[in-house]
Amino acid sequence: MASDALRGEPAPSIATTGKPVFLRALRVTASRPPIWILGAGLTGLLALVAAAPWFDWFESRLADRYEPGTQIRELSETFRFDHALAGGEFSAAAGGSGAALALLAMLAGAFTAGGWLQVFLERTHGHSVQRFFHGASRFFFRFARVIPLSLLWLHLAGWALYGAPWNWAMGALFGAVDGNLEVLTSELSALRITWVQDGLYALAFGLVMTWGTYTRARLALQDTHSAVWAGVCTWWTMVRHPVRTLEPQLSLFVVELLVLQGIAMVSKVLQGGLGAPGDWMPVLFLFLLTLLALLARTLIRGAGYHAALQVSVRVVQPLPRPDPWKGAIGGPGGPQYPIGDDEYGVSL
User: Fold this and answer.
1) Cβ pair 226, 317 in contact under 8 A
2) Which of 32, 71, 217, 230 is 20 to 30 A from 223 via CA?
3) Could you tell me the CA-to-CA distances from 314 to 5, 76, 223 in Å, in that order?
4) What order of strands is seen across the sheet that includes strand 345-346?
């Protein structure tokens, strides 16, 4: 199903208005609770699968071995010493399953991205869950191909900032052979350089994630299949319009930070109020706060795709589509008389 935006007619949810892009994205996304609740549930299910083995491990270690209530707020030094070896072995064993779950989480992100974009691009209303699954299946393989490209860009950024190029720069600027900052006379200067290094990688990570969002929006908007070509075009668009493309995503990131920081502060207060094992109310509130954080992140992630569509509709040129009536004479809906042919048909 082609989007109306491809024909120069943006769907109502992505029509340009005078409101800030990120505020409109949040409003439109929040008006579809079945979708972001569904996305949060999918992420929560993966988290539950990852947490279940740890829950069983702790339950087996804590049963009838420690005084009740001593391990509620934090694990004691005695517990850490007694189970250091077993905990390390279990953590290493869980690492493989954690990597598999991380891959599933990325694929789930590609799946939900297709659902979000399908819902935002269609002009029809109602049956949002049905349209979500239609778009998720329709765009899944296209969007999944963006994942290895993103990982490639992140690997390139890591090599540039933690590999040979960075070491060469440190040697040229400070005489630090192989990036060894011990030659600096000031420990504070070395620390600041490390902060700059980590900050640049965080910036590169954010740019790659933003690029992935705009690349998927472009694939859906233009209804194309090449993730590589869409990615190249997206980098060029971001270079040509840095403020317009980055400002909405940065605003949504700030909103997410503020929301999660507020939830973390409330969670810290509740954790300080944990008492005896029978005191279940703080635990219940902590669980509800966790769900709230998951819902907030899912909603803001969906808003990121809506913001990317709003910007893409303005700056991305629609692809030329072939006109099936180019070689015929006659208005739409009426008789079509092919040029140079004695036959004619009727367009429906």
Assistant:
1) no
2) 32
3) 10, 57, 16
4) 328-329, 335-338, 345-346
- CB burial of 184-215 (b: ≥16 within 10 Å; e: otherwise) equals beeeeebeebeeebeeebeebeebbebbbbbb
Give the whole-angstrom CA distance, residue 207 versus residue 216: 14
Cα 114 to Cα 316: distance, rounded to the nearest angstrom: 19
pLDDT tens digits, 92-117: 767 777 778 888 999 999 999 999 99
CA separation for the pair 58, 86 (Å, rounded)? 11
Count of beta carbons in the 10 Å neighbourhood of residue 149: 17
Single out the residue of 65, 234, 66 nearest to residue 146, CA to CA. Answer: 234
Q: Are 236 and 252 in contact (CB under 8 A)?
A: no
Q: pLDDT band at residue 344, thresholds of 50, 70 and 90? A: very low
Q: How many residues does the chain have?
A: 348
- Beta carbons within 10 angstroms of residue 32's beta carbon: 20
CA distance 259 to 256: 5
- Phi, psi (5° rounding) for residue 10? -60, 145
pTM above 0.70, yes or no: yes
